[in-house]
């Protein structure tokens, strides 16, 4: 049986829960359109404050997942996986609750419309009430929620997130957020009742409250330890992300809201708080753990560039598809593309762990169309070469080139870099051997004739040769990068188009079927994976990515560049299956 007030009243509404903001929005619009001025000004303020609070959480989320900035400051090195993302999907439920309660307060106390914009006395009163009322109230409520029934039926939900994230701050039960609303509301309500409240006080307090909550759950240490050396007393008045992270690791300590002073008074300070904070803060200038494998990807187009985890975490956790909410952001994406073209270098975008090995995805700051611009090819090769040399310098074992980064016309499938740097210790892999294996194993064993397009490419040639060895008759059809609807019309009805080129064939024929790009599912024991690779399903990666993974797990010491060795197709396929990678059937 569900505990009282543990579930959210609107948890089954999905995206329709945002209609609960409707009465507030309707009242504002009605006043704006049909009246001389917005009479219920606080309805507008509530909506703006909710948007501001959502923005604060979003900005903290973006910062904490911008790994090229934060990788050396992470407190817990593990990644946030799909299960945690799904649990925290409705992290913003509390914003709706607080908006509804604030609206009720406005109806009960219409005098709120007369609040001045600014009153310095209100900030002093607010700070005093926060320290003397909100902090101890939260501290003791938090301690009680860690006991028996309250923890099991309520607070355990919040602690189900093994790696904290700014959205974890909002991930709690209905009852807990009711109490949190009281904690936030008392200083503001009391200040207003004492006649020293102001609109700026409400905006400032709520924003600061959420900012500090996100800071504590960010899993990124941003507070320099030198601050506490110069001002030792400050460590009792401001918690750090490390301090709160220890609470999630060792739950019997560090209960405070923002001020460790109350933990010190309650004898619940974790003894490792300051030492761990100093260590993480000091180590931020050092290089972190070296990855065993790197997948070197690139941007596809402007819209898909917003599929990165540091843009929208929830959007990145599902396969990419064009969404309407992305369209207003296209000008921003275009501006970022120009900036990256001019100044950016290869950067880290995501990672996961597989059987003790760290696997990372680095991105060359170039988009698909740029690879077809003759004047841009030299610059792209330079970026790829820099990434390979950096991987070699820090001790990466295998680096796999994605899609256009191994384009034959660009660098001969990676041959350019291996020949230019014969002493590379890092193994450069194009992954096309496994890509060919995936495609070949999708073709039914009893097939006697295959109609093949793209036979002049590395993959097309290898597939044709392999099929001929199996005594399969291969008919070739040489087309360009894009196959037109008219060209597709020549294929007989019932044809299945296997995809192995970039860009993929567009589906024009209703009487034919179209496969996805060759891919494989990562083993079940992968950890910390929380983003999808372009249009792939969760846990599925492109075959060239999987090829690099197999190369690293097998410990092979050769480069895999240039033409595909047909004799190794079966070897690589069996190795992939041995390590738990599974094919993703496209039929």
From TrEMBL:
Fatty acid hydroxylase domain: residues covered: 128-268
Molecular-function GO terms, alphabetical: iron ion binding; oxidoreductase activity
Keywords assigned: Membrane, Transmembrane, Transmembrane helix
Membrane topology of the entry: Multi-pass membrane protein
Keyword Membrane: yes
Annotated localization: Membrane
Coiled-coil segments: none
GO BP terms: lipid biosynthetic process
Residues of the Very-long-chain aldehyde decarbonylase CER1-like C-terminal domain: 476-583
Keyword Iron listed: no
GO cellular component, one term: membrane
Domain of life: Eukaryota
InterPro entries given in the database record: CER1-like_C, Fatty_acid_hydroxylase, Sterol_Desaturase_Related
Membrane-spanning ranges: 15-34, 41-60, 94-112, 124-141, 177-203, 324-343
PANTHER family: STEROL DESATURASE (PTHR11863)
UniProt similarity note: Belongs to the sterol desaturase family.
Protein name as annotated: Fatty acid hydroxylase domain-containing protein
């Amino acid at each position: 049986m569900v505990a009282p007030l543990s579930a959210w009243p609107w948890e089954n509404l999905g995206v329709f829960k945002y209609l609960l903001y409707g009465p507030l929005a309707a009242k504002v619009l009605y006043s704006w359109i049909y009246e001389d001025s917005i009479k219920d000004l606080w309805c507008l303020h509530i909506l703006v404050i909710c948007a501001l609070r959502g923005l604060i959480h979003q900005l903290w989320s973006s910062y904490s997942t911008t790994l090229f900035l934060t990788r050396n400051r992470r407190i817990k090195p593990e990644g946030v996986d799909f299960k945690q993302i799904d649990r925290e999907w409705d992290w913003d439920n509390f914003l709706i609750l607080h908006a509804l309660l604030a609206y009720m307060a406005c109806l009960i106390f219409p005098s709120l419309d007369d609040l001045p914009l600014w009153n310095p006395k209100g900030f002093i009163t607010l700070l005093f009430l926060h320290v003397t009322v909100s902090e101890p109230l939260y501290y003791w409520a938090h301690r009680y929620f860690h006991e028996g029934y309250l923890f099991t039926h309520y607070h355990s939900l919040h602690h189900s997130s093994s790696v904290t994230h700014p959205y974890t701050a909002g991930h709690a039960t209905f009852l807990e957020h009711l109490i949190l609303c009281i904690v936030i509301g008392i200083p503001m309500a009391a200040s207003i009742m004492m006649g020293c409240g102001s609109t700026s006080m409400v905006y400032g307090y709520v924003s600061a409250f959420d900012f500090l909550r996100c800071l504590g759950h960010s899993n990124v240490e941003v507070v320099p330890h030198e601050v506490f050396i110069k001002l030792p007393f400050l460590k009792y008045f401001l918690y750090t992300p490390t301090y709160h992270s220890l609470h999630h690791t060792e739950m019997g300590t560090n209960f405070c809201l923002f001020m460790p002073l109350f933990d010190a008074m309650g004898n619940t300070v974790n003894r490792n708080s300051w030492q761990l904070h100093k260590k993480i803060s000091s180590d931020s200038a050092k290089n972190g753990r070296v990855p065993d494998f790197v997948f070197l990807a690139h941007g596809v187009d402007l819209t898909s560039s917003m599929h990165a985890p540091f843009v929208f975490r929830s959007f990145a956790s599902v396969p990419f598809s064009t969404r309407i909410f992305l369209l207003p952001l296209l000008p921003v994406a275009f501006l970022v593309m120009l900036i990256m073209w001019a100044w950016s270098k290869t950067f880290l975008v995501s990672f996961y762990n597989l059987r003790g090995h760290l696997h990372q995805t680095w991105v060359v700051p170039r988009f698909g169309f740029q690879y077809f611009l003759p004047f841009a090819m030299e610059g792209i090769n330079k970026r790829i070469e820099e990434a390979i040399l950096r991987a070699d310098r820090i001790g990466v074992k295998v680096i796999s080139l994605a899609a256009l980064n191994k384009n034959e016309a660009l660098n001969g499938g990676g041959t350019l870099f291996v020949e230019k740097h014969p002493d590379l210790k890092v193994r450069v892999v194009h992954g096309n051997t496994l890509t060919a294996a995936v495609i070949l194993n999708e073709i039914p064993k009893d097939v006697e004739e295959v109609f093949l397009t793209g036979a002049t490419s590395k993959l097309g040639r290898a597939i044709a040769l392999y099929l001929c060895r199996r005594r399969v008759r291969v008919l070739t059809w040489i087309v360009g990068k894009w196959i037109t609807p008219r060209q597709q019309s020549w294929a007989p009805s019932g044809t299945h188009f296997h995809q192995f080129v970039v860009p993929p064939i567009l589906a024009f024929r209703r009487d034919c079927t179209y496969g996805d790009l060759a891919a494989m599912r990562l083993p079940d024991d992968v950890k910390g994976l929380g983003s999808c690779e372009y249009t792939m399903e969760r846990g599925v990666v492109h075959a060239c990515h999987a090829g690099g993974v197999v190369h690293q797990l097998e410990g092979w010491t050769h480069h895999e560049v240039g033409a595909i060795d047909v004799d190794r197709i079966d070897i690589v396929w069996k190795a992939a299956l041995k390590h738990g990678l599974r094919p993703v059937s496209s039929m």
